[in-house]
């Protein structure tokens, strides 16, 4: 790939070359369209053959959509395939009108990846951070090391133009350092006799507690299975969306629970257990219900006596005066990162027990198997953070909301800091993932068959499912084999499953408090 000044100029060059390619190949493409007589499959096959047979197209893909690496990664191959499909679409439609934006985005993505690959080649290698772990970091993360391998700064890179992640990390540290003061101010304001101040305090407490968006409301296209729904006329179907400022009384189905459609039409569910916040919200719900009695539309919670609603401008002013200028969305990032921290902590004991079972089985690939289990734990933590923020896609949560230093510290020290605050305020030291840190802890665990029962059952279940796939065994055979193998370690399969369900229910019911 050629080196250029910015991602934008790289994308501009890619579009210019794509335009020249379409002009050059158009006569042959038109001939294919004429001869194929509308056979879409045949057209696709022949256009692909035309594109793949062009050395200039091959050079185009290599120049604008590959990385600096000598060997194409799966991501690079997928990107080149997407670019090739866009060229085919451009030939079909006679130009780049419908494809230019996508080609540009792919080229910018390639430039970004290549820039990071070059600048971080000494960091992102299999010895320091193997691919199975690296995939759980933001794609544009940049980690600066000193000559001794110590971490100096964690930031990000986009087209060599900015380092936004570093700022986000510093903002999160600022919030943690001032969090107790913020809580004191907000709780005092919730108790205020001034209705506007009390509402602003309540809204802020909701944001701090649950991480919901501050949105004053809007509309969003409805999606189903990731696809935008359209009506009979082919028009997009829209739905009304809400956030903290636009909550209605019907969005509070029970004390301590919020349910409402949010950004992108995603149903948001949030739970909180702060007593003062619950009381304040319950009072607002009752007032909104009385005011809207007899009306068709449920009333908004944060409406002042004169009928005006608490606005985004009012909330920003409040944050400036009472929370030292912190942005409301900063608390969403804090909520996501806290969800990851708490999930990693909950999973740590079972992780070490699973590794202990590998140790006892004297497996030859101990480090590899331990690494895979650690990667699963991180993935589970990210999914919990995604759920906490009601994101449609976990990549959004990872790329824009989670502070990666928490995960970096976890994998390089073999566990978490004692507190969430410490995890945020303490930067990871040396950047080297060594599964032996987890393995050594697992070796120290004493083996008790009763304590490991649910883990052994889970392993046997997975093995039994594999047996069904390989040998087409009946479900009855699977159950019989499983109970026979469990033997004296459990009274019955039902007891074991019940224990597992109880443990999962306990995890699902645990909620952080904003206090």
Query: What is the rounded distance between the termini?
Result: 52 Å
The shape, in one word, is globular
Radius of gyration (CA) equals 28 Å
- How many separate structural domains? 4
Q: How much of the residues is beta strand, in percent?
A: 5-15%
Identify the CATH homologous superfamily of the largest domain. Topoisomerase I, Chain A, domain 3
Helix content: 55-70%
Average pLDDT confidence is 84
Gist of the model:
By secondary structure, the chain is mainly alpha-helical.
Defining traits:
515 residues, mainly alpha, Topoisomerase I, Chain A, domain 3, 4 domains, two-stranded antiparallel ribbon, 19 helices, 6% strand, disordered C terminus
Description:
It is a single chain. By secondary structure, this protein is mainly alpha-helical. It has 4 domains: 7-119, no CATH class; 120-162 and 333-446, no CATH class; 168-328, Topoisomerase I, Chain A, domain 3; 448-515, no CATH class. Helices cover 59% and strands 6% of the residues. It is built from 19 helices and 8 strands. It has helices at residues 7-36, 40-52, 55-65, 74-93, 100-119, 131-134, 164-190, 195-210, 275-291, 312-322, 330-360, 366-389, 394-400, 404-413, 420-425, 436-443, 453-471, 475-486, 493-509, and strands spanning 141-145, 151-156, 218-221, 223-224, 227-228, 238-241, 257-261, 267-271. The strands form 4 sheets. A two-stranded antiparallel sheet has the order 1-2. The chain has a two-stranded antiparallel sheet with strand order 3-6. A two-stranded antiparallel sheet has the order 4-5. Helix 1 runs antiparallel to helix 3. The longest helix is centred in the last third of the chain and has 31 residues, at 330-360. The two termini are 52 Å apart. The relative contact order is 0.08.
